[in-house]
Structure formats: structure tokens, C-alpha cells
Amino acid sequence: MKSAEPLRYAGFWKRFAAYGYDASIVSIAAILLRICLGSVHPFLAHSGTLYLQAAGGGGADAMLNLWDGMMDWLDQLTRDSAFISAPYTILFTAGSWQATPGKRFCHIMVVNANGSKLTLLQSTLRHAASGLSVVIYYLGFFTIFFTREKLALHDMICKTRVVYGRTTAD
After folding, report:
1. How far apart are CA 145 and CA 13, in angstroms?
2. pTM here?
């Protein structure tokens, strides 16, 4: 990003939309990873069997087994998503795009307070600090509404900004 241009800060809803795109990409990658590891969603794997069991009088037990299987699968999927999202976020943010694909689609990117590109270490620290925003019941994201530069808690900690713009790589 050219330093002569004034920084235009991206607000909560633009960042939320970008997060939605990224969460979808990461979720699809996690599902594909689960499939590659041989774990298929229990409903897809056993739906016919469970339907027959339910029709034959074993319905409550069959439904509880389905529910337990689905919860286990979702738990695995959540862990896989966390495993995938860290390198996804860190590498894209520190890369030439300076943004994840979701941010790029929304025409926003992450920069230092002075408008320069983040290093790999800064991107890693920012991702770790974003966990703090989540752990405190997502309150760290609501500071975006109340700060002039639309800063989330992890932006304050790491001295980063999410701004409108395109990199010189575009």
C-alpha cells in the first residue's frame, strides 16, 4: 500500500463479512481433511441403517447413537478448523496479499499502524492475540465500534490496522 494515501479503516461489518468467507473456506478444508482421514459424517455413513433401526422399534437408541456420532464428528471438525485456520490466517496476512482470501474479496487488508506490511512474526502474534478477543466472549471485536481507527483488541495489542485497499501485488 502506498504510504502517501491516507488509511481508510474497515469497520465491523466489512470485517465480519470477510471472516464469514474465510470461515467457509476453512470449514470446507476441514471437511475435506476429515474425509481424507477416513472420517465420514455419521449421518451420511449410517442414515439408511438408522432409518431401518428406527422403523424396527430401536428408534430412540438409534437416534441417540446418531446424535452422539454427529457431536463427535463436529468436535473433530472444530479441532481441524482451528488447526487449519492458524497457518491460513498467518501466512496469507504476512504474504504479498496482506489479507486472507475473505479480506481480499472484501477489498481490505492488514497493515501495521504506519501502513506497512506485517512480518511473519507480527502476523503470528496478531493471530494469537485474536484468540484473546474470542476467549472474552468475543468482546474484543466490539471495540471496533468504539475506536476511531476501528480497532479490535488484537489490533490494539499488535499495533495493526485493517484498512481498505489493494497491495502492490495486485
Report:
1. 10
2. 0.81
pLDDT band at 42 (very low <50, low <70, confident <90, very high): low
Question: For residue 12, how far is the Cα from the chain centroid?
Answer: 15
Q: How far apart, in whole angstroms, are the C-alpha atoms of residue 85 and residue 95?
A: 15
Q: Is residue 1 part of a domain?
A: no
Going from the C-alpha of 88 to that of each of 25, 41, 83, 101, the distances in angstroms are 10, 24, 9, 9
Q: How far is the C-alpha of 109 from the C-alpha of 91, rounded, in Å? A: 13
Question: Has residue 121 been placed in a domain?
Answer: yes
Number of structural domains in the chain: 1
Closest CA to 33 of 72, 70, 66, 76: 76
